[in-house]
Amino acid sequence: MAYFAVIGLGRFGTTTSLELMHLGNEVLGIDIDPKAAEPLAERLSQTIIADATDERALKELNLGNCDGIVVAIGEDLQASLLCTLNLLNLGIRCLWVKAGDSAHHSILSKLGVRNIVHPEEEMGIRVAQSLNYPMVNSY
Ligand code: ATP
């Protein structure tokens, strides 16, 4: 069993955190908005309402113990970058960050983030491949 944190509990962050739970892991969910965090309170190991752009708040969460952290803030470029920078400053390296567009991707890449996720584009490719190779069901 591993321990993960998911920051930003929109559709992508919620799905990722619930699947990590389903796979038998412990998951800490973090969101600035109580309306996003509260529905998951009983479904994740722990949920916390916090602003991930606040380095001190992140430091208090001892995220250094995590086996991996997902930053699932896609729309708010500034919040995503500040949160990512805070995590890098805390020495966290196993990061997966959702990018909203190519500018977002470029900056994350310059910051040294190796795992940058584009859910819509990646799903579009998988759907196209499933249509092109209908006999392959593993997608
Ligand atoms: P979706 O996965 O639903 O498509 P999205 O890519 O549109 O999401 P946002 O809606 O911008 O991304 O953010 C996802 C979640 O991140 C929201 O629940 C939002 O409240 C949360 N969030 C935004 N800013 C912060 C922050 N500074 N700290 C913590 N959580 C935040």
UniProtKB/TrEMBL annotation:
Residues 1-117 form the RCK N-terminal domain. One of its GO terms (molecular function) is monoatomic cation transmembrane transporter activity. Signal peptide: none annotated. This is Potassium transporter TrkA. GO terms for biological process: potassium ion transport. The chain holds residues 1 to 139 of 217 of the full protein.
